[in-house]
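Notebook, bench 3.
Goal today: get a predicted structure for Gfo/Idh/MocA family oxidoreductase from Microbacterium gilvum so we can plan the truncation constructs. The sequence was checked against the plasmid map this morning, with no discrepancies at the termini. Length recorded as 379 residues. Pasting the sequence as submitted so the record is complete.
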Amino acid sequence: MPIRAAVIGTGAISRVQHIPSLRALGDRVEIVAVADLNAASAEQAAAEFGIPAWYTDLETLLETEQPDLVTLATPPIAHKGAAIAALRTGAWVLSEKPPTLSLADYDEIASHEGPEGPFVSYIFQHRFGSAAERLRDLIADGSLGRPLVAQCDTFWYRDDAYFAVPWRAKWATEGGGPTMGHGIHQMDMLLSILGEWTDVTSVMSTLARDTETEDVSFAVVRFASGALCSISNSLLSPRQTSRVRVDFERASVEVEHLYGYGNENWTWTPAPGVDADTAAAWPPAHDVPSTTHVPQFAQFVASMERRERPRVSGDDGRRVMELAAGMYKSALTGRPVGRDELVPGDPFYASMAGGDPARATALIHAGTMTSAREEAAGA
């Protein structure tokens, strides 16, 4: 019996990635319905892809179709309610990024998972390209030595018209700016490579766009391994690029791309003294690009079939949300933040804005670190 899937949200990401990725899995999956608040969009998507049913109401879809799998291609504000509704019916969930608007929301969703499923996973497709998978294997077996220094950069460009979409760059609907909605892709891949982080120091500002949230952010992150990493997120950069670089004891490994990579986007540079034959064995033998969601969708469906927790779920999916919360807390308080601070009761556990969106916007617009320090000094 194929897995019965429903796709929620019928905008561009759904038509370009979700539906084609499910179709690529062949007879393992059957798309039984789509849903969107916009009836015309839902009807058009169903007709375009030959999907038998369309809805404008998620609850009606879940009751009528009883899908095994629900994918969420909706704005971030809608993720929590839709994920919980699907989990309550026993459906597994694969959701677009960012997972939710806060750590509190993330944990609330997780509380509806069962010990053997259903589970929720989040789409961070850059983890699943062959080069990233190969790099993690080399780290695990010690081939590259300890990680020492890293960079994680998302330099993208979004004009004023991009932010005219009502839910974008607002605390209540997107949760934050490029730290949450854009750089989070590279940040998640970085964390999948370097593992647990311990503390972060961050600055943020709104330099050019009319937004509630930041349009640039920078951070320095310390990892449990001792490695140090700089993170840059910008929506103001005409020459767009996405980059992750890690300098190990025995090699520098770097990927530079825009919205997805293949093996050709990676550079493997051996340290002096590493012989050529050893270095030649580092790159992956096969090329699985990260330009589509297919590799992650395939792994998620395989997890469903085995009834096991998928990757990028539970603690594995939560780690990047913790880092984002730490970056906002550091920028808005003007001090370094330890990962162990981000627990229930902390205002940044409940909201990336720290529970006071107006204050967060004012600080970020003013030039956060200086303003936050001055405010603290006067308290």
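The longest helix spans residues 314-333. DSSP finds 14 helices and 14 strands in the chain.
Flagging this for group meeting.
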